Amino acid sequence: MQSIIEISWIELSLFSFILLIPLGINYFLKLALAQEIIISSLRMAIQLVLVGLYLQYLFILNSLWVNLLWLLLMALIGTSSIIGKSHLPKKPLFLPILTALLVGLLPLLLIILIGLLSPAPLYSAQYLIPLAGMLLGNSLSGNIVALQRLFTAFKDREMEYEGLLALGASPAQAAFPFIQGALKQSLAPSLASMSTTGLVTLPGMMTGQILAGVDPIIAIKYQLVILMAIFVMIILSVTTALLLTTRKLINHSGLVLVALKKE
Question: Following DSSP, what letter does each residue of 38-100 receive, concatenated?
Fold first, then answer.
């Protein structure tokens, strides 16, 4: 097995010139995305370098409380991102979405760390932070799609919802078809990805480990753990988010208490 091939900063800088390709497409097709492409690319690079430097320090420090604080910060930022991208009011939804992410994240982390990997110490930043990042990061889009679908359904199918209430259905019963549809749509990309993984796509974590010199079979085992955990994280967090938000935003008479706009 070949040892790790180092990429120098000069080589990485030269490679970044491939971003001229999307900028060129933007120019010829007049997409008006040049500023967003440049800013997003710069933010990505700066954030990753800073996080890399911080993680080096975090791995050396390996403090339980610092690791938990970083974990909470990741969940808070993820919650804010979900609500912002869903274009929904932040104040009433923040706690339900944060709760949903933690309900999905914490049990899975405990199962992986205690039952599978057993690092020493158990809260080792080398395992805790990357695992949490992968689980949270991959659940964001599912939650965004689900919330957008749910509240769009309330808006576009208002007469159907009110008709079910008029026929004697409880608010939970009337909202159930909307929750069901939102959950199905949010899971569709994950199910499609899972069914083609290995044949059409090679997941990033596995590819990275193989490039770093890890035996492919070991890399596959880790990737299977992560993919299964990600799918469970998505379905747990999305289901909890949908149930908590409908309970929070629909009163006892079935009235939806918020409009589809951010505060």
Answer: HHHHHHHHHHHHHHHHHHHHHHHH--HHHHHHHHHHHHHHHHHHHHHHHT--HHHHHHHHHHH
pLDDT tens per residue, range 102-128 = 999 999 999 999 988 888 888 888 888
pLDDT of 236 reads 92
Distance CA 262, CA 251 (A): 20
| N-terminal to C-terminal alpha carbon distance within the chain | 55
Which residues, listed in sequence order, are joined to residue 256 by a DSSP beta bridge? 250
On average, the pLDDT of the chain sits at 82
Residue 121, helix vs strand vs coil: coil
> Residue 40 CB: number of other CB atoms within 10 A?
11
Length of the chain: 263
pLDDT digits (tens, 9 = 90+) for 17-57: 999 999 999 889 888 888 988 998 998 889 888 878 877 78
- Of 115, 159, 146, 135, give the one whose Cα is nearest residue 75: 135
Rounded (10°) CA dihedral 221, 225, 228, 229 = -170
Look up residue 137 and give its two tokens. Answer: 């990061």
In the chain, count H helices and then E strands.
10, 0
pLDDT of 163-195, one tens digit each? 777 777 777 778 888 888 889 888 888 888 777
Tokens 């040049």 appear where?
A: 34
Question: Within a 13 Å sphere around the CA of 154, how many CA atoms are in the beta-carbon half?
Answer: 23
Taking the C-alpha atoms of residue 226 and residue 121, their distance in angstroms, rounded to an integer, is 21
Contacts of 262 (CB under 8 A, 6+ apart): 83, 84, 87, 88, 89, 90
